[in-house]
């Protein structure tokens, strides 16, 4: 029969070859609903540097509307940067000679001028990927000098199940590489290939090395390592360095996993682990169609304060290519993770002292759940239309097209004691919960989130069997927002909205915050008596502080007990009658950052 194809000419994008060049989007070419992809290839063995000469795009939180995005290597590589508005930054550098650039606009018409981006290959070849089990690398120009203002990044990946040993064969940096204020030219090593991989220390307190003596031997925990060399000062008399790497020893952790059920643990478990490490397990588990994975923690202590920047466990499904679960900051065993896939990467990151941590978990494949794409798809409890079995844990990821709001409507539920269906506002089981359904009800329940993804989790214990539930995905407007700031728009804004629609948005801030709402553009309302037909575009942000007028009450720092963000200025006012006085007691842990002019805080304080 053959085939039939349709060919169209792209109006933007393309492949560029060369040492230097530029990309530009003019005001006339800056139109709505664009998705332009550029692939830039420099000389082999060199890295590329990209920067903006001019940048004027529509600004939005996290650059979710119009943006320029740069990725290492290709369209699925590591994100090097995403830019919008007028903040040009200092540019980005790739790890090799290939970079993917995407320019995206939404349906909102703007009067911005576009951008002019320039790119240039490095003068000499350095850095790049190495996949051999052993090899050598050297500084640019070795052994005839060290060039000034160079940055080289080598990423090493040896066979699974092995660890990397890095040792120095020759070492001589310029005398000016080390000053009283620190290193001006230096070498650093990461335990992994990600931007957030932990540093491997050369000494007990230093992971940037610029001493005149050769650095000590460095060992990774797994099969990946990043080596970064930066030279702010150069010299023609200093040789530079030459290093060797090998992979003769087994890895401390990480590797490929293809069987289930099974278990994983931190290095040296059950002992606490206090060394820098990045352990990556790639799970490719056998399963039937529409299956999910249940991860259950047996022991857990990753006491990271704040936003899981240091100690964490992260889950990145292969299907999505992005992190959906982040677990940290607990000294008690967290609840299970319901992952709607059986192929995913699990990463344990530890920065080393003073943080020590440990964990132990088990994983198992469940024959239910999976990916549900778009509206009009039905989700049933296992065994439907018969009763569901005991001991089930299923996870369905509801995913709509970008900029569509995911919704799911339950026609009815019939669940036994201890069983539940939970709908979460995001792709992971650590996302905020919209609602947990229990018991029996024939009333329809519609739930919608703030983005194009929802997670539906079903759990049954061993107390008995019931009919289960029936649900269907649907499109619509409105949603529940858990973000600290954002925007609400009428459907199809700035175009006209359709007739006979009803949208409802709910904003839920963290404890300790109150909401601030402001109108950011003029809005057009259909004139009607009592304003019966209208729409609003609004933005909100969560600010901390509150006024109290009651006889008693309670308040907490923003985000308590998971840590507060930086640059906050919170005012809590307790308003009473003139003749009254106020008694204030701290009823929970009291932990604030100490400053040089104040004594160290106590863990608990009270009046």
3D architecture notes:
- It is a single chain.
- It is built from no helices and 44 strands.
- The chain is mainly β and 607 residues long.
- It has 5 domains: 14-121, Spermadhesin, CUB domain (Jelly Rolls, Sandwich); 128-250, Jelly Rolls (Sandwich), CATH 2.60.120; 255-366, Spermadhesin, CUB domain (Jelly Rolls, Sandwich), CATH 2.60.120; 370-479, Jelly Rolls; 486-493 and 504-607, no CATH class.
- A 5-stranded mixed β-sheet has the order 1-3-8-5-6, with no helix packed on it. Strands 20-22-27-24-25 form a 5-stranded mixed β-sheet, with no helix packed on it.
- A hairpin with a 6-residue loop joins strand 5 and strand 6 (79-83).
- The model is unreliable at 596-607 (pLDDT under 50).
């Amino acid at each position: 029969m053959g085939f039939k194809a349709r060919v169209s000419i792209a109006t933007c994008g393309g492949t560029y070859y060369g040492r230097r060049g530029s990309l530009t989007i003019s005001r006339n070419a800056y139109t709505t609903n664009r998705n332009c992809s550029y692939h830039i290839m420099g000389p082999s063995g060199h890295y590329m540097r990209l920067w903006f000469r001019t940048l004027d795009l529509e600004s939005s939180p996290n650059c979710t509307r119009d943006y320029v995005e740069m990725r290492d290597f290709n369209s699925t590589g590591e994100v090097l940067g995403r830019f919008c508005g007028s903040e040009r930054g200092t540019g980005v550098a790739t790890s090799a000679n290939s970079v993917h650039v995407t320019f995206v606009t939404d349906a909102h018409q703007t009067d911005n001028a576009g951008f002019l981006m320039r790119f240039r290959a490095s003068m000499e070849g350095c850095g790049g990927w190495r996949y051999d089990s052993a090899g050598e690398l050297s500084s640019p120009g070795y052994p005839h000098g060290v060039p000034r203002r160079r940055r080289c990044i080598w990423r090493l990946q040896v066979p699974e199940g092995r660890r990397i040993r890095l040792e120095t064969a020759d070492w001589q940096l310029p005398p000016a590489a080390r000053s009283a204020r620190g290193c001006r030219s230096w070498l650093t090593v990461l335990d992994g290939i990600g931007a957030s991989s932990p540093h491997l220390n050369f000494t007990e307190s230093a992971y940037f090395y610029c001493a005149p003596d050769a650095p000590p031997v460095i060992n990774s925990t797994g099969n990946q390592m990043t080596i970064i060399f930066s030279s702010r000062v150069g010299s023609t008399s200093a040789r530079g360095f030459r290093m060797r790497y090998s992979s003769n020893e087994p890895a401390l952790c990480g590797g490929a996993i293809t069987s289930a059920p099974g278990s994983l643990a931190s290095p040296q478990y059950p002992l606490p682990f206090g060394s820098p490490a990045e352990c990556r397990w790639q799970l490719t588990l056998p399963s039937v169609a529409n299956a999910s994975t249940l991860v259950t923690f047996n022991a857990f202590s990753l006491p990271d304060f704040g936003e899981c920047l240091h100690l964490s466990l992260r889950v990145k499904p292969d299907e999505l290519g992005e992190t959906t679960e982040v677990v940290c900051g607990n000294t008690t065993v967290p609840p299970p993770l319901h992952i709607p896939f059986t192929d995913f990467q699990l990463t344990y990151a530890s920065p080393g002292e003073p943080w020590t941590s440990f964990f132990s978990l088990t994983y198992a494949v469940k024959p239910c759940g999976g990916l549900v794409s778009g509206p009009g798809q039905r989700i049933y409890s296992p065994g439907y239309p018969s009763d569901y079995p005991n001991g089930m844990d299923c996870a369905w990821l509801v995913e709509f097209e970008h900029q569509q709001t995911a919704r799911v409507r339950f026609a009815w539920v019939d669940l036994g004691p201890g069983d539940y269906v939970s709908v979460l506002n995001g792709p992971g089981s650590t996302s905020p919960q919209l609602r947990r359904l229990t018991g029996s009800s024939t009333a329809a329940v519609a739930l919608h989130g703030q983005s194009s993804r929802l997670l539906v989790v079903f759990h049954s214990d061993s107390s008995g069997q019931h009919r289960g539930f029936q649900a269907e995905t649907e499109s619509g407007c409105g949603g529940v927002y858990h973000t600290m700031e954002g925007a609400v728009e009428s459907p199809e804004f700035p175009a006209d909205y359709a007739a006979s629609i009803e949208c409802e948005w709910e904003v839920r801030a963290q404890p300790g915050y109150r909401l601030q709402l402001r109108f950011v553009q003029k809005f057009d309302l259909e004139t009607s008596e009592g304003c019966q037909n209208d729409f609003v575009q609004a933005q909100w942000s969560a600010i901390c502080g509150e006024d109290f007028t009651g006889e008693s009450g309670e308040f907490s720092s923003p985000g308590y007990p998971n840590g507060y963000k930086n640059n906050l200025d919170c005012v809590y006012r307790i308003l009473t009658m003139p003749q009254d006085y106020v008694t204030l007691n701290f009823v929970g842990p009291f932990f604030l950052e100490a400053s040089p002019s104040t004594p160290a805080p106590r863990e608990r304080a009270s009046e």
